[in-house]
């Protein structure tokens, strides 16, 4: 089965939405194969978003991602990467389709409640960023 990396971001954790968001993952056919809560350090957030270094929103993104704990998980399903992106919706909640997690919960383009890997290659890299193989069931 394909795997993707999910992050429930600080805005959602602060608003006590962890349970509701995890329920949506499971209701949508994803198996939670690994999960942990952590408060990202600045170097951890900068490393995770290295591809965005130099962009105008980078510093704000790192500040936001380190502002409160996050919940990182590995989700398993056929076509997990693509199906998870469909489930969460567009980056900007104003553009997100009805019924998506970002449409229902996100506050802004930055504070958009969840992250999902954008390709199978990114998923492999992002999963390894947070989990060792023995932590994935
Ligand atoms: P993610 O990678 O978190 O799933 P994404 O792939 O939809 O989101 P990216 O373009 O990779 O979006 O941007 C990473 C994150 O940076 C976004 O989820 C959002 O939190 C923030 N971000 C992206 N674009 C902007 C922007 N124009 N202004 C503010 N924040 C932004």
Automatic annotation (TrEMBL):
Q: What is catalyzed by this enzyme?
A: a 2'-deoxyribonucleoside 5'-diphosphate + ATP = a 2'-deoxyribonucleoside 5'-triphosphate + ADP; a ribonucleoside 5'-diphosphate + ATP = a ribonucleoside 5'-triphosphate + ADP
Q: Where is the active site?
A: 115
Spell out the InterPro entries in the cross-references: NDK-like_dom, NDK-like_dom_sf, Nucleoside_diP_kinase, Nucleoside_diP_kinase_AS
Q: Is this entry keyworded Kinase?
A: yes
GO terms assigned for molecular function? nucleoside diphosphate kinase activity
Q: Which domain of life is it from?
A: Bacteria
What does the record give as EC number?
2.7.4.6
Which UniProt key words apply to this protein? ATP-binding, Cytoplasm, Kinase, Magnesium, Metal-binding, Nucleotide metabolism, Nucleotide-binding, Phosphoprotein, Transferase
Q: Name one Pfam family in it.
A: NDK
Q: Entry's PROSITE patterns?
A: NDPK (PS00469), NDPK_LIKE (PS51374)
Q: Which cofactor does it need?
A: Mg(2+)
Which residues are in the Nucleoside diphosphate kinase-like domain? Answer: 1-137
Q: Where in the cell is it found?
A: Cytoplasm
Q: Which residues bind ATP?
A: 9, 57, 85, 91, 102, 112
Q: Does the keyword Nucleotide-binding belong to this entry?
A: yes
Family, as annotated = Belongs to the NDK family.
Q: What does this protein do?
A: Major role in the synthesis of nucleoside triphosphates other than ATP. The ATP gamma phosphate is transferred to the NDP beta phosphate via a ping-pong mechanism, using a phosphorylated active-site intermediate.
Q: Oligomeric state and partners?
A: Homotetramer.
By what name is this protein known? Nucleoside diphosphate kinase
- Species source reads Exercitatus varius
Q: What is the lineage of its organism?
A: Bacteria, Pseudomonadati, Pseudomonadota, Gammaproteobacteria, Pasteurellales
């Amino acid at each position: 089965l394909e795997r993707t990396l999910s992050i429930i971001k600080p805005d959602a954790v602060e608003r006590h939405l962890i349970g509701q968001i995890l329920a949506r993952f499971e209701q949508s056919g994803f198996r939670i194969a690994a999960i942990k809560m952590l408060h990202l350090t600045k170097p951890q957030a900068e490393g995770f978003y290295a591809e965005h270094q130099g962009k105008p929103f980078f510093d704000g993104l790192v500040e936001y991602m380190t502002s409160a704990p996050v919940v990182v998980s590995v989700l398993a399903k056929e076509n997990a990467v693509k199906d998870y992106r469909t489930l969460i919706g567009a980056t900007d909640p104003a553009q997100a389709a009805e019924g998506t997690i970002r449409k229902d919960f996100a506050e802004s383009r930055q504070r958009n409640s969840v992250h999902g890997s954008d390709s199978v290659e990114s998923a492999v890299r992002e999963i390894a960023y947070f989990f060792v193989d023995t932590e994935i069931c």
